[in-house]
Amino acid sequence: MSFKQFFHSKDYANSKFLIMKRRCNVCGLFSFFVVHLGCIHKYLLEGYIPIVDVQSYSNSLNGFNISSSNNWEKFFEQPFGYSLDEVLKKAKHIEYIALDNCEPRPNAFSIIDNYPRRQIWHTFANKYLPIKKEIIDLSKKLIFKLFKNSKNILGVLARGTDYVSIKPGGHPIPPNSSEIIHDVKKMDNKYNYDYIFFSTEDEKIRESFTKIFTCKLRQIKPNNKINYDYIKKDYFNKNKNIKDAIDFNKIYLLNIIILSKCLDIIAARCSGTVGIFVLTNGFRNIKVYNKGLY
After folding, report:
1. What CATH architecture is 132-288?
2. What pLDDT is attached to residue 36?
């Protein structure tokens, strides 16, 4: 049965629902995404309809508050189109689980260099955790606004802030901005891109790229309500200057979608990069840094 067929034949009386809460309040959007993909895979096989819940506990997607709405559903559809609110009101069989990780799941060391595995997760994500249509539509408008009809685009994802300041254990070590700049220049000299689409959460790295690649560089301008400066030795998602979690994560998701549509990609290893490789239909050239883990 297809997603759309199931969507129109919801069964609240007989289906077994599993409401999933993540055991990580500082994790970012695509950390949630990749873990929930693995957990949806696991619990579908066990006969449940998994439901992602980021509403009932403090986390980076609800501004570290108990929320009146499930902000996950502002970005992604739930499996088979059920919403958390509908399930809580109508379902007869509900279980709850607090998650850490589920295996198998997409990660930076299992899918970036493995095209068949990337395609498996690409198909799975499109079926069971699709991005909201209104965000996809907005990404298409942005792509035309940024690049017109050009396809000759290099995508670049740089990672700084907490990955550099606190060096979180078990997380990939990012390249410094000068290393990425060197590689972007090298790629551009070889392929003469029409545009370079650049994404980062670190304002200092953004300033470095903007000065060097002024003419070709394209970015989504950060929302003025969100301050991307980072001065604290803490997780970036806990930065008190980020006042609107929904706006911040919407911009982040749009960046990842657009990066997934580029012809070539240069990226630091992080959950956002895993998201890019889950969403993409493929790249011509790939440069993802593997500098080990903290």
Report:
1. 3-Layer(aba) Sandwich (3.40)
2. 96
